[in-house]
Amino acid sequence: MILGPQRIVCLTEETTEWIYLLGQESRIVGISGYTVRPRRAREEKPKVSAFLSAKIDKILELRPDCVFGFSDLQADIASQLIRAGVQVTVFNQRSVLEIYSILYQVGAMLGCEARATEWITERQKAVQAMQDRVETWQNEGKRLPRVYFEEWDEPQISAIQWVSELIGYAGGIDIFPELAQESLGKNRIISDGQAVIARSPDIIIGSWCGKKFRPENVASRPDWDCIPAVREGHLYEIKSADILQPGPAALTDGVAQLHRIIARWVAQHE
Question: What angle in degrees, to the nearest 10, is found between the helix axes of 113-139 and 96-109?
């Protein structure tokens, strides 16, 4: 007997990627137009939503028995579908632990608890190995770099909680840890560039929600030439699909890229 929903619409990318990783992609009947992971999903599945909007009629035509969404920002879409009689599950994960939790929940809903648990366990082992390396750096007296992660540039928005946590796992120190606890982007706005200057980041990483990161624009901000990251050229981009998706990507490619960037800095400052 095949358990769980058989006709799933995913309003965001992370559940799509996860269901593909579980080998259950045949159950997906519609995806977000922003989906790029896995690439084949764009060719195989109808695109029925953006992030803040959706083609409700098209979704209903697909006769889903479950719709997966993410965050309070999709509440209006969810309410329309619920009123139309559709089962909707909206996750609101903000931390790494919560990401693992929703991955398990989706796996359980699809009757794939064992496969989900195996994947999660392997990821946790990989992250632990990364943390062990960071601990070795500290035992050897190496300094860990201060990291400014910018989620958007106009206005400047700092890292959300799971990104801040992954920076720590990868060996960096988020310079705005207090803002990372704020789930809403509007509460993570840095209104004064002097606040970044004051915290003197060694590394700046941009992930501008799908817009191309422009390190030259960052470096030319007023007075930012005194920031160590700018002065030494440690400005990097991580694609938003790899780090701002609160699902498998952040736990694989996202944290791996963070660790490579940080390890390069550590090696140059021995």
Answer: 160
